[in-house]
Amino acid sequence: MRLRVLGRVAAAACLTAAPLRAADVYISLAGSGGAQALPLGLPPFVANDATSPHDSLMAKQTQDVVRQDLMFSRYFRIIEDGPRYDGRNVKDIARGWKTRGAWWLLTAKVAAPPGPMAQGPSPEPRARASGKASPVNVTVSLTNLQSGEQVFDRYYGQEARFWRSLAHRVSDDLVKAMTGKQGLAHSQVVFCNDQTGHKEAYIADYDGANLRRLTSHRSITLLPRISPDRKSVAYTSYKDGNPDLFLLDLLTGKTKPLSNEQGLNVAGGFSPDGSLMLMTLSRQKNPNIFVKNLADGSITRVTQHSGVDTSPTFSPDAGQAAFVSDRSGNPQVYVLDMTTRRVRKLTRMNWCDSPSWSPTGEWIAFAGRRGPKDPIDIFLVDVTGSQVRQVTHGEGSNEDPSWSPDGRFLAFVTTRSGRPELFLMDADGSAPHKLADLPGSSFTPHWSL
To answer: What is the pLDDT of residue 69?
Structure first.
């Protein structure tokens, strides 16, 4: 049996966020994770210096990114039609925003360094040619319109060329403060794309911005996996003739081999603490599942079967791993207990591939089909195997699901527009949209923690 996987087969400156209050605030909201969205008033961010075009442009750009982040989170209902904020008049405009249905009011003042602006759809101030780079400074406040109390008040500073990172940090801090949940605006997606004529690895922010190519091997690069700390990416490349596994340091750009045994060497995924890596190795025989200790380099075989075992993914506590095997005929999803090595079968479909275990632990997403003539779609199976939910429904071929850090969204590859493209959707299959409008075909996304 030949699994489909075989056929496919700038350093950021440190961001500072200083709370103006002595302690962080956590605001408990009814419905923050459910159907009820928080009514949030969002007047335009204001320039610290109203006469500065740089401050004005940066204020608009920063608000655009924060607005998009908060809308994507599904926690907020954004209200924008209200009295104008001038940097000082929160008390004066509070009643006007409250009458428009807002419960909370988010305001911000932004200062940008002087200098020429970079070109493009999302211009960023360029750092000066010499001397220390000037920062973007943002002060963000959140007011409870019911009580009039200012419940969130923070100052942020970031080197200007990383202003989008600052905006994402603001968004994630607001989500955390108001819901107690992890935001995902800081997250990134790694994937492969063949726009150069070769399959290379790329990385982009979760919203498709800051796209950059990670490899230039002019060969076949497969199945990139980003580490939990987002400092490195493991991937398989045929650049030396064999499908070898490499580890790329995202800070230095340096690459080192992780596994170059004869035959298949493919990363399944890092453990949540980043200390272990699940791998598929063939060792000139049928592929099986192995675990590599990244500290001491030791490798342990955890499945021993005459069939093909591949595509492993850790559970959130690393106590189990889901994988695909053809040991019972057509490839199905199985779960392996990492301590006892006991294996149990989860699916009974015509074909399954590329399982991805939700960070919340309840569900495993995978690509599959119920019948031999059905298109490939994305499914969810619970950890007992008793529930299987189909979340795409024949809109082209849908493969390679990968969970968002909060377990509420999925990245996947679909041919619904004609060629393989990278999409994001809610975990129930709703609101599918492109990550970015990229040339070429895209493959095997992996969403960072």
So the answer is: 97
The token pair that represents 285 in the structure block: 């025989």
Strand order of the β-sheet with 232-237 is 221-226, 232-237, 244-249, 255-259
Q: Tokens for 213?
A: 């190519």
The domain that contains 161 carries what CATH number?
3.40.50.10070
* Rounded distance between C-alpha atoms, residue 310 and residue 306, angstroms: 12
Among 119, 148, 179, the domain boundary falls at 179
Place of tokens 């960072």: 448
357 plus 388 within the same structural domain: yes
- Are 198 and 219 within 8 A, CB to CB? yes
> Would 399 be classed as within a structural domain?
yes
281 and 249 in a common domain? yes
Angle separating helix axes 163-179 and 53-73, nearest 10 degrees: 40
* 9 in a structural domain: no
Q: State the pairing for strand pair 421-426/433-434.
A: antiparallel
The per-residue pLDDT for 350 is 97
Amino acid letter, residue 374: D
Q: Are 323 and 312 in contact (CB under 8 A)?
A: yes
Reported as a single tens digit per residue, the pLDDT across 159-190 is 999 999 999 999 999 999 999 999 999 999 99
CA angle 399, 441, 8 (to 5 degrees): 55
Tokens 């059905």, residue? 374
Amino acid at 397: S
Full residue range of the structural domain in which residue 330 is found: 188-447
d(CA 215, CA 213): 6
Which one-letter DSSP state was computed for residue 405?
Answer: T
> How confident is the model at residue 9, as a pLDDT?
35
* Unique residue bearing structure tokens 């590329």: 354
Using CB atoms within 10 Å of the CB of residue 187, give its burial: 0 to 12 exposed, 13 to 18 middle, 19+ buried. buried
Q: Of the candidates 144, 161, 179, which is a domain's last residue?
A: 179
Q: What is the pLDDT of residue 133?
A: 65
Helix (H, G, I), strand (E, B) or coil at 73: helix
Please, what are the averages of pLDDT over each run of 10 residues along the chain (449 residues)? 39 35 37 68 95 94 97 96 93 95 96 59 38 81 94 94 95 95 95 97 97 96 96 97 96 95 94 96 90 96 91 97 95 97 96 97 97 96 96 96 97 97 97 95 94
431 within a domain of the structure (yes/no):
yes
Taking phi over 0 as left and psi of -120 to 50 as alpha, with beta for the rest, 415 belongs to: alpha
Supply the pTM of this predicted model.
0.88
